């Protein structure tokens, strides 16, 4: 014969509370997951233009730094140094008359078009640019015009 076990009053109350608790249904869980999925999708859609903006901004900053470096190096070495953009590539090459100093790759979504002349920017030993240039840099959403002026070797970036 099985003896019934006795529960104390707090244990009985705890058992009653446990028996009355119910979980979520499958439909409720699916609704919550759907709402979370919609929110995540909307965040991803909103972030995509920001990614494109930061890609081209990062490229322009890197080009600016490299251009200043080329200008300073040309003055320090007292020899011409050039930046040569690959015609159909995604890199530009910095070199002097003897060797390649470095290559810099950039994102494949960035397109570079030269408004005038060839695809080379050359600084002479005084840090001046040898030929005025206009470069159009664009990606899917943004377009910039970079103008190199004869004289001090300065350049300006304008959003179009």
Automatic annotation (TrEMBL):
InterPro entries documented for this protein: ComGD, N_methyl_site, Pilin-like
Pfam families, alphabetized: N_methyl
Gene Ontology CC, one term: cell surface
Compartment(s) of residence: Cell surface
Single GO biological process annotation from the record: establishment of competence for transformation
Membrane spanning residue stretches: 29-51
Domain of life: Bacteria
UniProt keyword terms in alphabetical order: Competence, Membrane, Transmembrane, Transmembrane helix
Name listed for the protein in its UniProt record: Competence type IV pilus minor pilin ComGD
Organism from which the protein derives: Priestia megaterium
């Amino acid at each position: 014969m099985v003896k019934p076990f006795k529960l104390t009053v707090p244990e009985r109350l705890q058992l009653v509370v446990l028996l009355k608790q119910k979980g979520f249904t499958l439909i409720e869980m699916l609704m919550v997951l759907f709402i979370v999925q919609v929110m995540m999708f909307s965040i991803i859609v909103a972030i995509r233009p920001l990614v494109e903006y930061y890609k081209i901004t990062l490229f322009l900053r890197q080009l600016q730094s490299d251009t200043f470096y080329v200008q300073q190096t040309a003055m320090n070495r007292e020899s011409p140094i050039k930046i040569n953009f690959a015609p159909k590539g995604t890199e530009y090459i910095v070199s002097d008359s003897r060797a390649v100093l470095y290559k810099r790759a950039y994102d494949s979504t960035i397109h570079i078009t030269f408004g005038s002349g060839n695809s080379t920017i050359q600084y002479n030993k005084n840090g001046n640019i040898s030929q005025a240039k206009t470069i159009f840099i664009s990606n899917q959403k943004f377009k910039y015009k970079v103008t190199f002026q004869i004289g001090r070797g300065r350049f300006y970036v304008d959003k179009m």
